[in-house]
Design a protein that fits this description.
The structure is a single chain. The protein contains 15 helices and 20 strands. By secondary structure, it is of the alpha/beta class. Helix 3 links the parallel strand 2 and strand 3. The chain is globular and about 65 Å long.
């Protein structure tokens, strides 16, 4: 166990904190760059400048004000359980710096960190030629003339670039695919990261931030939650390539959806299955202010990229309106694990009423689910773990029309190593003996042995609604 993890555990008095290799490596680096590691007690100021503050439990608004008001500009705040909606309020008060996704039972949480000022490059020496800056445009499009100005910017800054005319196939319905194909080709053709810039954007200063951070992927997210796809950094790493592959497949399968929405969905899938490290670029990396009023700190200008929305396409803003501060929106899973390919189908485990429990209880429940599936998936082909704060979020999970299984649980319950095998056997019994059973039939009696109750009082407090009271449910199919 690393020294930084030992420090956190010794200060918190718990051994429940579980981090994956990539998450732990980044936490170690953040610790080395800080003057002191502080486990926030939920009450006190943080007087030490340039500290690394680890927050394991959420706090009330007044106490958060105390914390944020005491932070030095070089202090970092780290959330090891950032998938939990209980930390959303704190995230809204900080600038996001980075996050690392979940991967299996060894890394079932999302690590997030941020600070009180926008993200800046780490101190060091960086070679301009270590990143390739790329862009492409369709011949005859309005972006063609803008691309000449972008080329001038890149040449003036001494950056290596590849800006090409990449005419889409007029017979292809994959509207966004040519851009993604171009990025993939550029990444495959070399051994260095690729930084995509929209041909209509202008590079005002050296965009070296992602390179200095060593992340897998970097993107700017608008306050509304939408990803800006005009400035994208992809490193030469497996997680970055997996993200590109998912985005490419989604773009080909859903050519009429906005590319920012498809990238967001691809990122959600990647971050739920891999420890992909994302750097959240500050506003200076996609500044859409008027040229006359632009800030000198602006790195990339996007004045000409604000196109009018296509009335025939669904708005990305509408599709992503409920995106919450770099955390997946329920009913999206924050953790996905694969079982046998020829299995009986997927199962979703819902941990509900998470705001009524401590973050430690919720994280313990997540770890128990992931550990149980890793020990024995019970024939299920895939596990998805979803955290739900309210009944309407549980409703959203149940409205997915795939006739797969859903296991309802809460933070007071822990799945055991045999849990998914027991659920699989109860499924066989019920289907064989009661073939006319309705989709929301009560299977609680069959599912009870899969749980160990760790806190009866907590469980009683969390069971606030009788809706979906059964433990094991089948999603409906609507025809």
């Amino acid at each position: 166990m690393s020294s930084v993890l030992e420090q956190i555990i010794s200060q918190s008095g718990t051994s429940a904190l579980r981090l994956g290799a990539a998450q732990l490596s980044r936490l170690q680096q953040l610790t080395r760059d800080s003057m002191e590691l502080v486990l926030w007690d939920g009450v006190s100021d943080v007087a030490m400048p340039a500290a690394l503050v680890v927050v394991l439990e959420p706090a009330s608004a007044p106490r958060l004000e105390t914390l944020i008001g005491s932070l030095h500009e070089n202090t970092l705040v780290v959330l090891p359980y950032s998938e939990n909606p209980a930390f959303d309020t704190l995230k809204t008060r900080l600038h996001p710096y980075g996050s690392i996704g979940a991967q299996g039972s060894a890394a079932p949480h999302h690590l997030w960190w941020g600070g009180v000022k926008p993200l800046t490059p780490r101190t060091g020496m960086y070679r301009k030629q270590d990143t390739l800056y790329v862009s492409s445009f369709a011949q005859g499009s309005p972006a063609e003339s803008c691309a000449e100005e972008l080329v001038g910017d890149l040449a003036r800054l001494g950056l290596e670039y590849a800006v090409e005319s990449d005419l889409p196939d007029i017979d292809s319905l994959a509207v966004n695919a040519p851009k993604i194909d171009f990025i993939v080709r550029q990444l495959d053709s070399g051994d260095r990261p690729v930084f995509w810039l929209d041909p209509r954007a202008r590079a005002q200063d050296l965009p070296l931030l992602p390179q200095s951070l060593g992340c897998d992927f970097a993107v700017h997210r608008r306050p509304s939650g939408e990803m800006d796809t005009g400035a994208l950094f992809f490193n030469q790493t497996e997680p970055a390539r997996a993200l590109l592959d998912m985005w490419q497949r989604l773009a080909r399968g859903h050519p009429n959806l906005p590319e920012s929405f498809l990238l967001d969905q691809a990122w959600t899938l990647a971050a739920s299955q891999r420890q992909i490290e994302t750097a959240w670029l500050p506003a200076s990396y996609w500044q859409a202010d008027d040229i006359k009023a632009r800030d000198r700190s602006t790195v990339i200008r996007a004045d000409a990229v604000c196109d009018a929305p296509d009335p025939l396409q669904p708005s990305a803003a509408l599709l992503q309106a409920a995106r919450r501060f770099d955390r997946h929106q329920a009913p999206e899973a924050h953790l996905i694990m694969k079982g046998p390919a020829d299995g009986r189908g997927p199962i979703t485990v819902v941990i509900r009423d998470v705001l009524a429990a401590s973050a430690g209880d919720v994280s313990g429940a997540v770890e128990a689910v992931a550990g149980a599936f890793a020990a024995d998936p019970g024939g299920f082909s895939q596990l998805e773990v979803v955290l739900c704060a309210w009944d309407d979020e549980v409703d959203h999970v149940m409205q997915v029309e795939d006739y797969s299984w859903v296991l309802m649980t809460d933070a007071s319950e822990r799945l055991q190593a045999h849990s998914f095998r027991a659920l699989s056997e109860s499924d066989e019994v019920v289907v064989r003996l009661q073939p006319s059973q309705t989709p929301f039939a009560d299977m609680g009696a069959h599912a009870k042995p899969v749980f160990e109750l760790v806190d009866a009082q907590l469980g009683a407090r969390l069971k606030r609604s009788g809706r979906y009271g059964s433990a094991f449910l089948r999603r409906p199919v609507f025809v």
